[in-house]
Design goal:
The complex is a heterodimer of chains A (260) and B (331). By secondary structure, chain A is α/β, with parallel strands linked by helices. In chain A, 35% of the residues lie in helices and 25% in strands. Chain A has eight helices and ten strands. In chain A, strand 9 (221-226) and strand 10 (229-235) form a beta hairpin.
Chain lengths: 260, 331
């Protein structure tokens, strides 16, 4: 694959998603540059999760177009596996690791190293997992190895594993869905460092976050979703944290008035 | 370098229970349990149970349940008996029995995976449906297959090698194969992740619906195979022949230590679980306890095993249980 000659890793055009009569996304267009951190902000039900699920092949939109590295994707055949093949990886909030399964299974599930009969090369998978744990994620002597089940890890470590997995598979785009929810402060810092490291490696990131301080600090561009539509886009430095908070509060108040 | 601890030997607690149980029966009924015939008898009666329990281990590992297999045993048994007796078919009859089971499993899987009906409801309904169909098409009568032991299929599936029953080899072979599928194959891993958390499985790229269809088809196929072993061994088909297997096949899996919450499974545990449950049945009878008590004891053992594994798996449940019974957890 040519070395990043594209302008946008992902370009979504007029994406529409309806669940029966309920419109979750109404003609949303969004681009993600090749080493850009895009922060997605919005209330519950604004459509953030749906948007990234479409981007990563988990759900199929009702309408619209998706381009990856400027190439149009056939949405009727787009899947998580295809997204993986195009080096788009997702880290879902508490939801991208099988808790009872050991790390070596979690690392490779969905793209196991197998022989042609589908039997897994466990030795190789364990060796790679241990190597990534030690050399990329930096779990040194913490009693965590490829055989540890996920449920033994702290919340921050879990996100670290999920992000490390994305990096190992050489993702050009890492999608993070609320990675710091329910984490202790120290753990949050670890996750934020991971996010920064994605950009440092010249990769892109779409970052959903409720904590405005975190997302304001990290994102190159803030995209505010409201009831299935993009209501505002801020570039880094265009808005202070206070102004951003004010903007979102006003948005909520407007919605409340509409509801009355 | 590799740490070897007791907990890493798969199914170790259940193996201990198995050995202890044999010890108990030897003490209680030495004349029976110190001679070989009883063990050969186990090797004829356990295989159908084991084959069913192996399939159920996958189903339960995926967080699902299958209650329809007793009717698969009836339906596939009928196909085998009817094609053999009325049409002189042998291997085609075997094929039809397996295909019949696979078809019922496939239909279960499609309903669960693509319509989204919970498996407990789907398979409860299909158990009644296929049981009813079998009764209707068989006319409710039984088929005696007295001459079936002269056929090659009888020798292959349930013949004797010396005193050793062939079905034990089939069941053992399947157990080994399915151990590898569960622990070493992509499909087994997908089953474990689906049982652990189906949403996680979906986002990491597992085709959850397709794997669920495969899962129920596998279960149906194995139930069809169990029907062959059972019908040939009995040299008889009757349309309620699967009914006794619902509890003992499920009990084998849970006694073995596979989690009722899915995401974790032990084929070794199931293997010994199937022997334990059958030994309890046979052993109680041999020690002179009246037949109708046996079912009660089996039910009790089943429940006790589930509660035991539940509390081992989840410390918070253990603490809650201790509170209920007024036992203070050690400070």
């Amino acid at each position: 694959m040519g070395k990043r000659t594209y302008e946008y890793i992902v370009r979504m055009e007029r994406i529409r998603m309806a669940y029966g009569n309920v419109i979750a996304l109404n003609d949303v267009s969004l681009t993600v540059g090749r080493d850009e951190i895009v922060g997605l902000i919005g209330d519950n039900g604004a459509g953030k999760s749906t948007l990234i699920k479409i981007m990563t092949g988990v759900v199929r939109p009702t309408g619209g177009e998706l381009y990856i590295r400027d190439e149009r994707i056939d949405l009727s055949h787009y899947s998580v596996r295809q997204a993986h093949n195009r080096r788009i990886e997702t880290v879902y909030q508490e939801k991208s690791l099988g808790e009872k399964q050991p790390l070596w299974r979690n690392f490779f599930v969905g793209r196991q190293i197998t022989n042609r009969f589908g039997f897994i090369d466990i030795k190789k998978q364990k060796a790679i997992t241990n190597d990534v744990l030690k050399n990329q994620i930096g779990f040194r002597g913490a009693g965590v190895d490829a055989d540890s089940p996920v449920q033994k890890l702290s919340g921050g470590e879990r996100q670290g594993i999920a992000i490390g997995r994305a990096m190992y598979f050489d993702a050009d785009l890492v999608v993070l869905d609320e990675p710091t929810v329910a984490l202790a402060i120290k753990e949050v810092q670890k996750v934020l460092d991971f996010v920064r490291s994605i950009k440092q490696r010249g990769r892109a990131c779409v970052y959903i976050e409720h904590n405005l301080a975190h997302v304001h600090e990290l994102a190159d561009r803030l995209v505010i979703l409201d009831r299935g539509e993009i209501s505002k886009i801020f570039h880094k430095g265009e808005v202070t944290l206070t102004e951003l908070t004010r903007f979102l509060l006003d948005l909520q108040n407007d919605n409340a008035e509409v509801a009355v | 370098m590799q740490r070897i601890s007791m907990s890493r030997v798969e199914g170790l607690p259940i193996i201990v229970v198995f050995v202890a149980l044999i010890g108990c029966f030897i003490v209680a009924a030495p004349e029976v349990f110190l001679s070989l015939p009883i063990y050969f008898s186990f090797l004829t009666t356990v295989p159908p149970v084991l084959v069913l329990a192996l399939g159920l281990t996958f189903v339960i590992a995926a967080g699902e349940i299958d209650l329809s297999f007793p009717s698969v045993i009836a339906f596939s048994g009928y196909l085998l008996a009817m094609l053999y007796r009325d049409h002189d078919m042998i291997w085609l009859a075997v094929l039809a029995a397996i295909a019949g089971g696979a078809l019922i499993g496939l239909i279960n899987g499609l309903i669960v995976a693509y319509i989204g009906v919970p498996s407990i409801i789907t398979t409860l309904a299909t158990q009644f449906f296929w049981g009813g169909i079998t009764t209707v098409i068989s006319g409710g009568t039984s088929y005696s297959l007295r001459t079936v032991d002269e056929t090659s299929m009888w020798v292959v599936f349930v013949g004797k090698i010396g005193d050793f029953p062939a079905q034990a080899l089939w069941a053992a072979g399947l157990a080994v194969l399915l151990w590898f599928i569960m622990n070493r194959h992509r499909f087994g891993e997908h089953v474990l992740f689906i049982g652990d958390n189906a949403n996680v499985a979906r986002v990491v790229g597992v085709n959850v619906a397709r794997e669920r269809v495969k899962l129920f088809t596998l279960m149906g196929t194995l139930a069809g195979f169990a029907a062959i072993l059972l019908t040939l061994e009995n040299r008889n088909f009757f349309n309620t022949q699967g009914q006794g297997y619902l509890l003992i096949a499920l009990a084998s899996v849970f006694i073995g230590g596979t989690s009722i919450f899915g995401g974790q499974a032990t084929i070794v545990g199931t293997f010994f679980g199937a022997f334990i449950i059958s030994m309890i049945e046979a052993g109680l009878t041999a020690t002179g306890i009246q037949g109708f008590w046996v079912r009660a004891v089996v039910g009790l053992v089943f429940l006790a095993a589930v509660i035991f594994h539940l509390t081992m798996e989840q410390p918070q449940r253990r603490a809650k249980l201790a509170r209920v019974f007024g036992i203070k957890p050690g400070k």
